[in-house]
Amino acid sequence: MCDTADSDPATRPACTAPDAPQPNDTPEEARARRLLWNLGYCGHYLHFHSGGRSGRAAIICLLAKNDGQMSQQELGAFFDLKPGSLSEILAKIENAGLIERTRNPEDRRQLFIRLTQKGTEEAALEQERRLRFRQRAFSCLTTEEQEQLVVMLDTIRSHWEGLND
């Protein structure tokens, strides 16, 4: 890591990468730092290359998987979003011409979200892109290594879920 900007430049060490071992790190701390840095990179990559967890791409793909239509309440529950947050995201998607929002004639409080033709086409392209990524993402690993990674990630996830208690 970097020292503060006001330290003496003559004695200030050069900046190091966040995953680089620090002078006082034990081998365990250095390994944990590198693991967390790499997992963080993977999370960042997935978030920005797959449309985020609840962004435009994820929403139109989910709609496409549900015959192009869902209630706003169903979408909010699926993505665990507050109604106001979801409404803001949907307004942007609607302004792009990808969805239409209509009121349920039987219950005017309920909104239906439906993909437009343009939205259906964009969802199909996004689903193809995601499929290509899934097919290539782990091609650098053997089948055995992929299976080992699945077990390790399941173990880490289970452990981390317990850390939130």
Automatic annotation (TrEMBL):
Ranges where the record places region Disordered: 1-27
Origin superkingdom: Bacteria
Pfam families to which the protein is assigned, alphabetical: MarR
Domain HTH marR-type: 29-158
Transmembrane segments: none
Keywords of the record: DNA-binding, Transcription, Transcription regulation
Protein known as: MarR family transcriptional regulator
